[in-house]
Amino acid sequence: MLSRFEKQIGLAEDSREFAAVAAARLEAEAKLSVTRHYRVPPDVVWDEERFVGDAYPIYSWAAAVVEVEVDLLTYEVTTTHLTAAHEIGKAINPILVEGQIEGGSLQGLGYASLENLVTTAGKLQQTSLTDYLIPTIMDTPQIEPLILEEPYSRGPYGAKGVGELPFIGIAPAFIGAVENALGVEFYAIPLTPEKILERLQEVEYSKKNKSSDNN
Amino acid sequence: MRLKVNGKWYYPQANPSTRLLDYLRHELQLTGTKEGCGEGECGACLVLLDGAVVNSCLVLLGQCAEREVTTIEGIDAQPIIEAFIVKGAIQCGFCTPGFIVAAYALLQQNPNPSPTDIKTALAGNLCRCTGYQKIVAAIQVAAERLKQ
Q1: Interface confidence (ipTM) of the complex
Q2: pLDDT, tens digit, for every residue of A21-31?
Q3: Which chain B residues have a beta carbon less than 8 Å from that of A27?
């Protein structure tokens, strides 16, 4: 806990003392709050009425690494480890940011591997959590969130933002990992065992056709 | 018929086919118990029935005659709640009461749970926001604190 606050606040002697006090109070009372105000700088302009201006003056950046094992008999894919690095300017509440990264990453993993959402004539076919599966605690790999901070001059205390960002990179990383394991490219998510089987059969079939053409 | 809720006897007039969840939330105003899916998939409505964890959306009031129901309001959840806050095990919070009831029941039975024990005990609770990792960590902290 202490090292986390030290990292957040900096290593100066007085701030280390502050971090120690803050960590001790959080441990003792399970709550700690600080109120500060932020005003958007005048040069960051966005007109909500006319949709004119710069709504997103800066981007946050993220990278994801997904490690998988593929069962060659059943084509079930197990994610063994997930690493997600996020450069978000400044993590004002690092614990909450880690939680956002972990939760968004797992949601992304569900999107990549499990969450089948099919519409027929505009109607969703999965109408309940019995049909629409999301990852449970048993499906969760170890998720390693990494927070990188490069303070942004126009944001509150250097912050840019984190929210939907953790979700975005996971599906491509997951597909890439399975492609790397099997040596075949995939073009659809969620990449269920059925889809892996179909794709492998397709590749096998086209290989056979090619070799028979050559003969 | 009568049932005990959080240590007090009640004599409900409601139809015995009322879901326990609805009786708790609407008749007794115990709104800490949440309705997520309403079909036993998500665990947001977990309560204890004679000390065992059940989905209150799948239990009928008539099944609770002469039995004891304990909700999130009736358990000593404070050490677990504090561990959830310190570890950041909450994002939106809707699933949290269900997780805390499940964690409480686990720690009653097993004061030294391994991460695998914790995961197994929480396998019936869905969370969309946290990624579960911090929930496991929080329950480990709560277990340590309860031992002291």
Answers
A1: 0.92
A2: 878 877 777 67
A3: 86
